[in-house]
Design goal:
With 152 residues, the chain is of the alpha+beta class. The protein is built from four helices and five strands. 49% of the residues lie in helices and 20% in strands.
Length: 152
């Protein structure tokens, strides 16, 4: 009875190893190839390529990594005094600009609606920037939804 139990356990262990190996192969090789094929196909479809391409760019720009592109959601007077736009602080250190303007400026990206992959990069004096309690994800949702989805 013991040799039968050993052979069953060996067969079970071999099955687990083969299934795991097949899963890894699929995930890292076949899975990547399938995604590449899907991307190429979606980018060839006339109307979908604009939507899919935009979503893909936004996802790549905002995907979490070791360094985030946007640090804080802010309110700035843009495009003129008296009107306000939502923007994102991208960096705060510009030695040459600060030396020339004699002001501490922050780099603010003001995205366009509903396509946040384009927009304006403006340098704003730090005292003219109003920081919001909104998360970056909520800010992006707010912009993409044309302001119809307000953050909680």
């Amino acid at each position: 009875m013991r040799p039968a139990l050993v052979s069953v356990l060996a067969a079970l262990a071999l099955a687990v190893v083969l299934v795991s190996l097949a899963g890894l192969l699929t995930r890292y090789y076949l899975g990547k190839r399938a995604l590449e094929w899907f991307d190429a196909t979606m980018l060839r479809v006339p109307l979908l390529n604009k939507i899919y391409g935009t979503i893909k760019q936004v996802n790549e720009a905002f995907s979490t990594g070791s360094k985030t592109s946007f640090k804080t959601v802010v309110l700035v007077e843009f495009p003129r005094e008296g009107t306000h736009s939502i923007g994102f602080i991208t960096s705060e250190q510009h030695a040459e600009v600060q030396m020339k303007t004699r002001e501490k400026v922050v780099c603010v990206f003001v995205p366009t609606t509903p396509n946040p992959t384009s927009g304006f990069l403006i340098l704003v004096p730090e005292e003219k920037v109003t920081k919001l309690d909104m998360s970056v994800a909520d800010g992006i949702k707010y912009i993409i939804s044309l302001g119809s989805i307000s953050p909680e």
